[in-house]
DNA sequence: GCCCTCCATCTCATTTCGAGATGGAGGCGC
DNA sequence: GCGCCTCCATCTCGAAATGAGATGGAGGGC
């Protein structure tokens, strides 16, 4: 049994004749006749009783008519449902980012997802690069924003932006007065406050504490206990408020990279989230919250899903 | 969207790959690929995400998978239902017969219908020939047993049986002693009890009452108030019980005819009822309840519904 | 880096489908 | 009663859909 045959059958039943149904269905009467015949053969009995004045639906035909109408309605419903599902991505997107990035990316992301893709569920976690990559590989994350790429065959990367890096110190620190620093200036700092995962300072600078998140790092620096390196987006509020002073390190940059697993299907929702993140990144650059060290702002990538 | 495409889609989704599904579905992988592509085009989005290790179902694909399985189940249910309906006639059959015929035909008919076609609803009415034909024409009856055919373009007839006709009188009536009568004998009867619809007696015989049903007719005759004509099937019980005497009128016969409307579809249930009536008629002849005036017992007719 | 798997695409054969013509059955009007 | 008209069934041919095999590109595994 075929949906087409069902439609034809219903057409004939509703119009009470092959000829009338044929013109209504835009099909030749002969073709209609053959389809009904085939349907009757398959169902093992007559669906119509043929008379010289048209056809009448048999008892079994009545059953098929009622059920068939319902079935065709269902088919339309299902199609509409799938189409809606296609138009509107849905499902859960699990995103990881370091807290400093999360702070500025997550609020606008949540707002945009809610507005544009209300059926997408976001799980916004905070994780530094290593942990994020690990979770990506384990399938615990769909997408991550990481800092600095460490090559991995099972991940693919897309650079979001390269941010300018600033040295931060307590307010009105004389070393940072000039607003920018050289490599040499850096070597003569008293103490460094390092992030957990890397050591961007020259080896000459002693460090006494490592912190995971940028907020305690900034607090420590603000109280004059040491210096730290952060991109502008991580410090602009404190600098504006006079709680920190900052100097650009022109030779350094922090590369914000979008990472996603390879070899695992990427959901529409994840795709859209990726697009939104790039959009948000552009907005942040435009608003001066992210200061790029590169001219280009959003890096394009080859298409990933097409057919 | 097509049921075949849906089956293919579900096959691919269940096996997690085109190749595996292709061999399971006995179709070439290329054809499968094309069908899925067409389905995706129609539904406006990808149903699978293709990877190098097979395919994964997208969010919209999951929806289609769930709904599609259900839909295919429904299709099977509907087919089974229609097939059952075809195997087992159903609906209502409205049958009309004169009370004397009803008396002997209806009980076995009801029994056989209940046993063989439990889904058929019988409406067994009592009506004499004229009324029955009128109701057939009005569509108030599907089938009728009538006595003596009056030609009508909108009815078609099928002779069930030609019954011997007996003259009945009170018990031990001397006129009926011989067991059979001649036309001349008939002319010298005192009084006749006539049926409502016709006058089978010669004009010489005076009549004083007309009755619709055979039961009062027999009662009147049994009390010696007159003579009447009835087929054997209508009197055998009273004759056996000695309440009536009867003499055969060899030159007469009562033709029991099955009448159905032309130009109106005949339901399977009606068809089966017709067949059963002929079967019952044969049984009654075999059991000696109906005595035929013809050698042939069940008259065949051309097929009425075929394709 | 090579091979192997898996899907997409191309091309051609087969099947299915649709259109028009023709014919038979039966109702309707003259 | 007779021809006409309507309606469905069937036949045949062209068109479209479907299926099969071959080939190629992408990507993972060794």
TrEMBL record, chains A, B:
Q: Which GO terms describe its molecular function?
A: DNA-binding transcription factor activity; transcription cis-regulatory region binding
Which superkingdom? Answer: Bacteria
Q: Does the keyword Transcription regulation apply?
A: yes
Q: Where is the HTH lysR-type domain?
A: 1-58
Under InterPro entries, the record lists:
LysR_HTH_N, LysR_subst-bd, WH-like_DNA-bd_sf, WH_DNA-bd_sf
Is the keyword rRNA processing assigned to this protein?
A: no
Signal peptide (from-to): none
Pfam families associated with the record: HTH_1, LysR_substrate
Keyword terms:
DNA-binding, Transcription, Transcription regulation
User: Which family is this sequence assigned to?
Assistant: Belongs to the LysR transcriptional regulatory family.
Q: What does this protein do?
A: NodD regulates the expression of the nodABCFE genes which encode other nodulation proteins. NodD is also a negative regulator of its own expression. Binds flavonoids as inducers.
Q: What is this protein called?
A: HTH-type transcriptional regulator GltC
- UniProt lists the gene as gltC_2
